[in-house]
Specification:
mainly beta; three-stranded parallel beta sheet; 8% helix
């Protein structure tokens, strides 16, 4: 069964009543959730009574027909993982032959049916990553269950006994509300060391207040030691002041990931450096830690500490001041280091002579005294919320860097010229740096992509020659934008929220000959394009809320742009008819056109668009509504997709409204629309059309017979 849920592709299944296996055959990782037609669930699946294996994984399913599984009683394998389902129909309890039920990553699943014990042959149940689902008591009555993945036990009453008796636990296991455990004798009942198939363990205390007896808390955690096969451990909200020794036991040969979170009372860290194969270590919210000492490495051992660690992060440690070093080659393969919200830590003591480090990120911590000389492979540097930084010369940085991001460093200035640097960045981002008032090539390293965002005192911008993609966003005081002498090979330019900018760079045709994409957003003072027009190679032009520019479109000369294929204009409806507006013409090369509230758009403008494949018209504009009602789009013989949005007075569409070439129609927010013309669409999407919706109701609406054979139908985000 292919992903996409198109009814047309699945209709041949009607005839395959002896089909035994129905599984997805492809996965699109770019869009991991796919629509599934309601017609498949209601009309096709119930006919396949011989099915033994069925997967609905990765489909956009919120609910299933109540009686579906009564008709699929022979199922032995059912996969509903990665769906949006909230509850399972009670009819699932009629699947007496079911052996495997997969519900992993159903983030909205809240409960399981109460009569699950009727699944007398269920051997494998996966409920991992179901954050809203607590471990139901009645699952203990599933006598045939051999594998339970992702169990989550809410401690209280007899739950530690239940946990101890559960010998069928696999994969991830969460034990929450551990503050309800009275003493270590109760913790022993969980028999954690016997659960050799659990590879991911989460232990969570919900109350943040201190425990009455820190030693009791330590003893409880000591008895919750997992089996040596454990791969990942997460400890959240532990209330003791010290950790038991097992947390740093070098016999955990499979442990690769450890997270210690919100353990606010602990004043020291165990010797985690002796965990021989630990790759990822996260330490968060340990408010009592003031220093990280030699104990952290296990200095008593001859083994090189953190021998396999690749990623290390410290977050939210307000009292941490000192990080002691051994200088014995610790962190030999560390690639990523994050220090966030550790305001008292002096980075002079940070072990940054890390030859393997590729990414270094500092957020909300002082950046005083940092030396980068030892970072021989560093590729990414991110500095945020470091108000102590006033000057940070690019010339001191390693030339191996590929990406630099500096954000919310309000006192940081661009002062020192970079000189003849060999560094050539893939991307440089400067965000919320209020002391930057001028950007010019001599102050910045070369970068293919340059992003300058929310630098509110920036007034002058000289575009560097090496820049290929430039984004200037929300820099409200930029008044001068120009191109460095000799021009650039820039292919994409986006200007957003520059409220004072009146002019685009001069001589754009000459200085920006490679420009393909131009995006202008919320620049109300730009009045016109530069003299000579836009670069001839321009392929995409997006104009959003640039009132003066749109109202002065007489001199745009867009018809001179032979490569222009995408044009988007979002306006406020203030445009007026242009006398002698022959220069306001659209080139025949346009394939995609989006027009919002441009009331002077006429059928004359559309006549030349012989290549137009996609058209979106939006806004309560009488002229455009009249064009719809009079069927003036029917001559667009190349049109494949049409979107009609926000027409509150539109009541009907005539038969001539849709060109015969149209395959996809989307209508949104047309509250008075109550009829559709007959057509042979492949896709129909209707949103927020309350009078039309009941006419399209599944199997009941007046228009349902007219659309029932469309391969894809979506009504208010429900796939029909």
């Amino acid at each position: 069964m292919g992903y996409g849920g198109e009814f047309e592709k699945l209709t041949p299944l009607y005839k395959l009543e002896q089909l035994r296996t129905l599984l997805p055959t492809c996965i699109n990782f770019m869009d991991p959730i796919f629509p599934l037609s309601k017609r498949v669930l209601h009309n096709i699946l119930p006919r396949l009574r011989s099915l033994r294996a069925l997967s609905l994984s990765h489909y956009r399913i919120k609910d299933l027909p109540d009686d579906l599984f009564i008709k699929l009683k022979l199922l032995r394998f059912l996969d509903i993982s990665q769906t949006e389902i909230k509850r399972l129909p009670d009819s699932i309890c009629a699947l007496y032959n079911l052996e495997t039920l997969l519900l992993s990553s159903c983030a909205d699943l809240e409960e399981l049916p109460l009569q699950m014990e009727k699944l007398i042959n269920l051997r494998h149940l996966d409920i991992s990553n179901t954050r809203l689902l607590m471990m139901p008591l009645h699952l203990s009555r599933l006598k045939s269950l051999q594998v339970l993945v992702g169990a989550k036990f809410l401690v209280g009453g007899l739950r530690m006994d239940d946990l101890g008796e559960a010998q069928n636990l696999y994969g991830s296991l969460s034990v929450v509300e551990l503050q309800n455990v009275v003493d270590s004798r109760e913790a022993v009942k969980a028999k954690m060391r016997e659960k050799n198939h659990v590879d991911k363990l989460s232990l969570e205390w919900s109350e943040s207040r201190s425990a009455d007896n820190s030693q009791t808390e330590r003893d409880i955690l000591d008895e919750l030691r997992p089996h040596k096969n454990i791969k990942e451990v997460e400890i959240i909200g532990y209330r003791g002041t010290t950790f038991p020794n097992w947390l740093a036991d070098p016999l955990f040969l499979k442990l690769v990931k450890l997270s210690i979170d919100n353990c606010k009372n602990c004043y020291s860290l165990p010797a985690l450096g002796q965990l021989p194969f630990l790759k990822f270590l996260s330490i968060i919210g340990m408010h009592a830690i003031t220093e990280v000492t030699e104990e952290f490495y296990g200095s008593w051992s001859s083994k090189k500490p953190f021998n396999c660690l690749e990623k290390l992060e410290f977050k939210d440690m307000p009292e941490w001041k000192q990080w002691d070093l051994l200088g014995s080659g610790e962190f030999p393969i560390l690639e990523k280091l994050l220090i966030e919200n550790c305001p008292e830590l002096s980075l002079e003591t940070v072990p940054i002579q890390l030859s393997s480090l590729k990414s270094f990120e500092v957020i909300g911590s002082p950046m005083v005294g940092v030396v980068f000389e030892g970072m021989k492979q560093i590729e990414e540097l991110r500095i945020s919320d470091c108000n102590s930084v006033t000057s940070f010369p690019f010339s001191i940085l390693p030339t191996t860097l590929k990406r630099i991001r500096i954000s919310r460093c309000h006192k940081w200035k661009l002062e020192q010229p970079v000189g003849e640097m060999s560094m050539f960045l893939e991307e440089l981002t400067l965000e919320n740096c209020d002391c930057i008032d001028d950007i010019s090539p001599e102050l910045l390293p070369r970068a293919r992509r340059l992003n300058v965002v929310s630098c509110h005192n920036l007034s002058r911008f000289l575009i560097p020659t090496a820049t290929e993609t430039l984004v200037i966003g929300n820099c409200k005081n930029v008044e001068i934008l120009s191109v460095a002498c000799g021009g650039t090979q820039m292919t994409s330019l986006r200007i957003d929220g520059c409220l004072k900018l009146k002019w685009l760079p001069e001589r754009m045709q000459e200085l920006l000959p490679s420009l393909k994409d131009l995006h202008l957003y919320g620049c109300p003072e730009i009045e016109s394009f530069p003299e000579g027009g836009l670069p001839f190679n321009l392929q995409q032009l997006h104009i959003y809320n640039c009132k003066k520019l749109v109202n002065g479109r007489k001199e745009w000369h867009l018809q001179r742009l032979p490569c222009l294929t995408i044009l988007i204009i979002e306006h406020d409806g203030s445009d007026e008819e242009i006398v002698g507006g022959e220069n306001w013409e659209l080139p025949s090369s346009i394939q995609g056109l989006i027009i919002n509230n441009l009331k002077t758009l006429s059928s004359q403008h559309l006549k030349r668009l012989i290549s137009l494949q996609y058209l979106c018209i939006e806004g309560n504009v009488p002229q455009i509504q009249s064009m719809l009602e009079q069927g003036q789009f029917s001559h667009l013989t190349s049109l494949r997709s049409l979107e009609i949005m926000n027409f509150p007075n539109l009541q009907s569409l005539p038969e001539s409204a849709l060109p015969s070439s149209l395959s996809l129609l989307t209508i949104s927010n047309c509250p008075n629309l109550q009829s559709l013309p007959p057509s042979s669409l492949s896709e129909l999407h209707i949103y927020d059309c309350p009078l039309l919706k009941p006419l399209l109701e599944f199997d009941k609406g007046e228009y349902w017979p007219n659309i029932a054979q469309f391969p894809i139908i979506e009504i208010d985000r429900e796939c029909m």
